[in-house]
Amino acid sequence: MQPDPQTDTLERTASRFAPATARDRLMVGLDVPTVEEARAIVERTKGAVGTYKIGMQLQFAGGLAFAEELAREGHSIFLDVKLLDIDNTVMKGVENIARMGMRFVTIHAYPKAMRAAVAGLAAAGGDLCLLGVTVLTSMDEDDLHDAGYAGGVEDLVRVRAADARVSGMGGIVCSPHEVGVLREAVGPSLVTVTPGIRPAGSEAGDQKRIMTPGDAIRAGADYIVVARPVVRAPDPRAAAEAIVAEIDAAL
Ligand code: C5P
Which CATH number fits domain 5-240: 1.10.1040.10, 3.20.20.70, 3.30.70.1030, 3.40.225.10? Predict the structure, then answer.
């Protein structure tokens, strides 16, 4: 099912986490080995990016303190920790992440983990958007089968998106290929965040369900996540600006 453009616009404005500008929609993953390198990319791209995403690689190399530092400076920060643990641990973890001043955080979209995350946010307060990770964009049907799942990617993504909505999450992470069919499942209050983005001509790497920035926005993505095509570009600022221009043209 294709998203209806009018409903889609209404739904986007219905979420308090909805992006205001084309630039707001670009999330750049600081997937580099050291804080020094991440800091250099932030310096070079300042003002051209909506949110900086700090993932596993940098978290284990001083990235958590760096995330707090960037948040204190007023940057929008996405802590991509993909939490999954027992309820109490997820709840307490989210409480502390909310207190760190983060804007987005990921939780694997298992109902109990999501409900625990929502409880943690309620306890801590703050303006943190809880994002449920549906199915990783590096996984296809064969990978799900290898992991013991009987159904296909789309079936699982639909179930997890619907669970995210019922749990009270702020949004979901999914492939741009699923974002259109998910609009209905996630309803008006959830934002959609799509990694697996590749500007025309860039390498797919390990991503399997990819799309260009413009196509992802046209498909209904609120935010797009881009790491390697920006952080490995000879000129990261020019790469970010080109993506924002492509987003703008697609709106
Ligand atoms: O380099 P690339 O643009 O492929 O990076 C995508 C980023 O989005 C990575 O940091 C990856 O961990 C993250 N991500 C993803 N798929 C998800 C959730 C997060 O690729 N479902």
Answer: 3.20.20.70
Q: Which of 26, 27, 30, 31 to mutate to test the pocket of ligand 1 (most atoms within 8 A of CB)?
A: 31
pTM summary value: 0.91
**Helix intervals (H) in 17-61:** 35-45, 56-58
Scan for tokens 């109990």, then name that residue.
112
* Contact present, 64 and 41 (Cβ < 8 Å): no
DSSP label of 2: P
- pLDDT of 51 higher than 50: yes
Supply angle C-alpha 139, 140, 146, rounded to 5: 85
Measured by CA distance, the residue closest to atom 21 of ligand 1 is 136
